[in-house]
């Protein structure tokens, strides 16, 4: 293991403590208010089974597809590659209802795909069911998995592939010796993150699952809270959700292992010697094309639906966009601060990483209720609405940021840490000269993701609904609720543009600085 | 990360203005206070006469409103809560947080109303909305036998969804389970809320969607589009009655009373039809807006009493879930 005594560990401990308190205290407050937990009902166990099943399949399919796609992208340079990589982040950051309508426009009963099939006299596709849930989750998460795994590929020094070629290794040998160890380091983490995301899926699972069979844990929490006002049961279910995510992450970290001992390279893009083979070119091209079509078609649908209304959007929508942008930027700053502090300390204390993943398992309903109970006796919760939103968004984006930063940091420290140690690079100098230049792409991507996620996240923001400071996702929902479907489509497009704009700026900034 | 709006609005805000006018705090659901809801116009109209500062606090939906009041347990800053419905009334009464309104209003509801605590401000009929040219079934049995595809809402997370389960229960009693089993193959999707369902319907995902008899009025009046209609069912239509109540712990009881009286005046009631797209609880002297006369009028109005609804709810939802989960 690297010896990074050269960087202070205390900020990571502070961040970790903050995180631990934030993950457990609201839930404890709810339990305390309820006077203890109450047992889940039989229907809750059925919901748990379905939740885990769909999350396992969704995460498995996403990662399994992401591996060949990331490999194809890693060995290809083509015009628009940067744009495609950027656009691939978009599905993930769409607000749920906008994304569902985009998916339906392509894959629904009256969608483009079925219209094409009908003109070809082929049987119609039916999207509603477990396969629909998986399709939607893959749509959301394949890009994320691809980017995480692509990072792994790009971190393999190009010299290794050249060396392998000069030693006459075949493709399977290259896979076994170079790529498999890298994947073992990266893929389980991606799997755990996506599993956790899908675990707390609610609207997507229900709408595309087509009925009450597709009841997830989050819906059970909602029901316990809303109907029975059974806060004890709601908190217990939220606790089960948190435990499942912790278990999945612990397993992933245990079996994933850590990428270390990589010899240093010169950081060039890996131009792989075998990439020139025509068959392989065809295969990679087809794969990238198919995935691009799958991911971009629903986005195009969102753009087409929203464009006519975009310029005529009423003032409250623009105002909400400004509120959302400020919240997103503040949350990004906080998230990146926490992520960097945690990443440095987590180099030696892997348990911290487990803690950060907990953010994915937060049930907005339980956290919101808990924070309300904690704040209410002391202060007007109203006055703290926006700050709390910022913190919740930052904590929820933290797992992604850490997943992106930490593996890269490990590689840098593993390959060049000892050299830097021997040169006496410590503290700020080490950050400036060793880490910053190489970490920039990961930092940019992580910041872009955090900004876009908190821009588009409705779950948390809706908890804090406020007539004066409505956020953009909330306005989209309000417009639909007021039958204003066209304006809602326009506002959805504006949201997509803001989210994507933020993501693009940060991500591009990081990658540009790296090149 | 992809959560739906678990819109409890616990942290909903009201701007605390340091004016010397007394402040009346009204908790209501989010869509009421939105820029496209009745809230802004109601606030302006009431403030013209009350010499007060009316502050709406938007908190999710009706169920979230009640949850928030329960969390605040008697120490709520709210003076009036506006936006519960008959399904929540039994639970709301149990909390003992509300005070009688003391009014004997002359309401335009199709049913008798004599609750001493909860006062209706608008109401509507649940109905399946379709394209006007689609030949519609005339009851649930016809619908179940047809090939028509419908989208409904989940009774566990949505008011119309619960309304539908109560509708089938009120119309069919012990046979409700059979009706749901027969309907299972007509249901394309069950959404968590009204917005997703209506959005999917407009995208062409189903022939009919569960909404209100007044929904076509929006398309007609706001969009000059007469292409939507509600299907009239001969077993009757279940009603939603939205109510308000005064909190017993209010520090502005007179102002709260004044608001409750204002709620049934023309100034308030005439705002409702074209912002909340529901029927006003007391038809204004100017009548309903042009276009409302085109809507269907159910022959029979169904509504379970709050006590019946409270007692039947869990069993009715289990029946629904068991029938659809097969």
Outline:
The complex is a heterodimer of chains A (515) and B (326). By secondary structure, chain A is mostly helical.
N-to-C SSE string of chain A, H for helix and E for strand:
HHHHHHHHHHHHHHHHHHHHH
Quickly count the helices of chain B.
12
CATH top level assignment of chain A = Mainly Alpha
Q: Specify the structural class of chain A.
A: mainly alpha
- Give the class-level CATH name of the largest domain in chain B: Alpha Beta
List the helices and strands and how they pair.
The complex is a heterodimer of chains A (515) and B (326).
Chain A: H1 10-34, H2 42-74, H3 81-87, H4 90-93, H5 96-107, H6 112-119, H7 130-155, H8 158-166, H9 171-199, H10 203-209, H11 217-226, H12 231-256, H13 278-310, H14 315-346, H15 351-357, H16 364-375, H17 385-422, H18 427-456, H19 458-463, H20 472-481, H21 485-514
Chain B: E1 23-28, H1 30-33, H2 39-50, E2 53-58, H3 62-72, E3 80-85, H4 86-95, E4 98-99, E5 119-131, H5 140-145, E6 150-153, H6 159-172, H7 176-183, E7 187-191, H8 194-202, E8 208-212, H9 215-223, E9 228-231, E10 237-247, H10 253-263, H11 266-269, E11 279-280, E12 301-302, H12 306-324
